[in-house]
Amino acid sequence: MKNILKPEIQQFINANLTTDLHSLLLKKSPFPEVSMQEIVQQIKGKKVAQRKFEFLLKEGIVFPPNLNLEQASSQSTAEFKSKSLNGRNFLDLTCGFGIDAYFLSKKFEKITLIEQNSELIEIVKNNWDVLGRKANFINEKLEVFLEENTEKFDLIYLDPARRDSEKNKKFLLEDLSPNLLEIQEKLSEISDKIIIKLSPLIDISYLVSVLKFISKIQIIAVKNEVKELLVFIKSDSKSDEIEISTVNLETDEPEFVFKLNDEKAAISTFSEVLKFLYIPNNAVLKSGAFNLISEKFNLSKLHPNSHFYTSEERLNAFPGRILEVEQIDAKTIKKGEKFNIISKNHPLSPEEIKRKYKISDGGNSYLIFTQSQKGKIILKTV
């Protein structure tokens, strides 16, 4: 790692940020102490940092292999997670590239980072030195650390590996590394507050059934793409008071927060399409609050399975898109027109719709193919 930080090598990396990487890899490295593969990896890292974590665009920062870059949280999600967290003693059991740890630990006095990959934790240590942050860096398997540890922590954070040795994706908690079901008791012994980052594909009802003392489940999307799901565990939590929090970062949409039992008790109202159509963002859809959206915002659903909502008057404070629409006849769709096509709870996919009506993607108007309680309908934005 020290070789890659030599001024002449860093200068070469910065001078080739826009160079085609495939052509670079075919060339011999001009520096005998580092390979062209190592140089290209640093260029890739800087490119990822430009869109994912700009705070690392500093001289002296070293970037890890692609897999670690991909698995690392973005700066925006890490910063959001750090809100309202503070204390004396912070422990990250799965440090990785250290993005989450850097932001989550900002208001803690003592920081302990565990990482079993020796090269990776050396990279993190170097970067934190550049950034002026101190921590206790421990190169160890977390199971070994937990077995030997006698200290208590105000907050434990972990992001279990979601791939097996053959790189296959895993979702059940017992298949992750570490196995959360095996260590949850041990974690609760050394901290009253635990945050676990999980795949956005994991089922919420499954989580509630297998994990003890869940206080909150937070669903984080960025520009309507659900990026991660966080589970907050507190030793005094009751299963009937679990809070669900949804957020769509880098938009002006409000957070939507509710109790899990609120959705179970909520009842939707239904109507045919009115003047405005409401499409919940994907974080809200992941939460499953389909009836509560209708009840809390006083909106009517079009169909039990559509998850589209409607009203005559515009409601601005809604966690999703709001479109002014009118119902149209399919015969009014002209060949060659361009639309942004949405198909939900409808037998035709967007591609099939384009072929059938000989239309294409684009333009400023939406065509929405869905169903109301009376049957299939087509809506067009006004």
Automatic annotation (TrEMBL):
One of its GO terms (biological process) is methylation. InterPro entries: PG_1098_Fer, SAM-dependent_MTases_sf, Thump-like. Residues 321-375 form the THUMP-like domain. Keywords: Methyltransferase, Transferase. Residues 276-319 form the PG-1098 ferredoxin-like domain. Coiled coil: none annotated. GO terms for molecular function: methyltransferase activity. Its EC number is 2.1.1.-. It holds the Pfam family Thump_like. Signal peptide: none annotated. It comes from the Bacteria. This is Class I SAM-dependent methyltransferase. It comes from Kaistella montana. The lineage of its organism: Bacteria, Pseudomonadati, Bacteroidota, Flavobacteriia, Flavobacteriales.
